[in-house]
Amino acid sequence: MALLEQPEALAAAERAGICASSLIPRLQQAVVHDADDASGLAAALSELISSLSGQGEHTLRLAVRESALLLWCRPRGAGTGTRLWRASQLCAWACETHWAGLDLTGSRVLELGCGTAAAGLAAAALGAREVTLTDVDPAALRLAKRNAARNFLPNVRVAHLDAEASEASEAAAEGRFDLLLAADLVYGFVSPDRLAATAERLLEGPHARALFVHDGDGCRSEGARQGVAGFVAAVEAATALRCVRSETVDKDWVTGRELAAPLLLQLFAAPLHPT
């Protein structure tokens, strides 16, 4: 579960002269609007303190095994990497718990659309030999690089990659990967078949896998919901990738409480590429 880094938050509050009692109505409102998101309350409080103190960024924690990753998040409205999304947390959990037989030890991992890079950095902390963090947004890549350095993970690099592009990319030039991570990338404007084609180009080996995590938030657009519902069919129609495991998660994987909106884990196997 993601938690606010207390020393930084308290210091920011003190500099801004914030009274704790003045935050209560705002916190109650945050709970109502984001009741099933484990990081929602912490992110709302962190954002509020950052905004009132004149600081745009805030810090969240992601527990990984016995330790935690410290992640900078960009100000709300700044684009990607503004908070620690549920799908990224679930992606990290799947890697940590070896969901569907995932084993990151000694593997080459690439994260598509990394944002804060939570999932990719969790993979690095869990034993991946090499992790490549990719995004189409240069600002997100700068954030990912800072977060990697902040957590002392030297086996991490960043590279620009448009997950829907057909041309060669900086990430693809580095060869193929054992595992691709993609958290919450299917929106109304994203083409599942082009996204899958990118994954297929980047994977290699009999045990290579692509893990997609989708958020079933009912507030998403109709196009996004249709994209998630038809994702497996679109991927298998457009590529040689095949879904080997699909699971709906309707309870919080940390607390066990019911989620207002489920998440979906889907694992795809890559075809063998000729050497």
TrEMBL record:
Pfam families: Methyltransf_16 (PF10294). InterPro entries: Methyltransf_16, SAM-dependent_MTases_sf. CDD domains: AdoMet_MTases. This is Methyltransferase domain-containing protein. The lineage of its organism: Eukaryota, Haptista, Haptophyta, Prymnesiophyceae, Isochrysidales.
